[in-house]
Amino acid sequence: MKSSESLVRLKEFQVNDKRRQLDQIQLMMAEFERMAAELEYQIAAEEKKAGITDPAHFAYPTFAKAARQRADNLQGSIRELRVQQDAAEIAVEEAEAELEKATALEVRDSGSRGAKAG
């Protein structure tokens, strides 16, 4: 196998790996958003049942307080994942650019080999 072919295969692998990482981040974000929405629904139901919506109130439901903390933690995780997503998108773009360069190099090399053979 020619070195340019090996380079193209390596770059393809890297692009696929970066895309997979980006997909995983996006899946985690979607799952965290779903979980946070479910917690918000549970908080609203608990507040309605208790008739108290002020978390500072002494009789505010303990479950709602704990669920609110979990929802806040999830929102923080989502913000962190957005930063990772931005970095992963850049990494995918860079890997794709490197793959294009390697592919162009392979085409050029195979064209020059064809010219030498003819």
Features:
mainly alpha; 118 residues; Helix Hairpins
Strands, helices and their partners?
Elements: H1 3-50, H2 62-117
Helix pairs in contact: 1-2
- According to CATH, what is the topology? Helix Hairpins
> Taking Cα atoms only, what radius of gyration do you get, to the nearest Å?
26 Å
Runs in which pLDDT lies below 50 for 5 or more consecutive residues are: none
The tally of helices reads 2
Characterize the overall form: rod-shaped
What helical percentage do the residues reach? over 70%
CATH architecture: Orthogonal Bundle
How many strands in all? 0
Distance between the termini: 21 Å
Name the average pLDDT.
92
Helix/strand class:
mainly alpha
Estimate the strand proportion: under 5%
CATH class: Mainly Alpha
- Sheet bearing the most strands, described? none
Q: Indicate how many domains the architecture comprises.
A: 1
Q: Secondary-structure element order, as H and E?
A: HH
Report on this structure:
With 118 residues, the chain is mainly α. The protein has a single domain (3-111), classed as Orthogonal Bundle (Helix Hairpins). 88% of the residues lie in helices and 0% in strands. The protein is built from 2 helices and no strands. Helix 1 runs antiparallel to helix 2 (62-117). The radius of gyration is 26 Å and the shape is rod-shaped. The two termini are 21 Å apart. The mean pLDDT is 92.
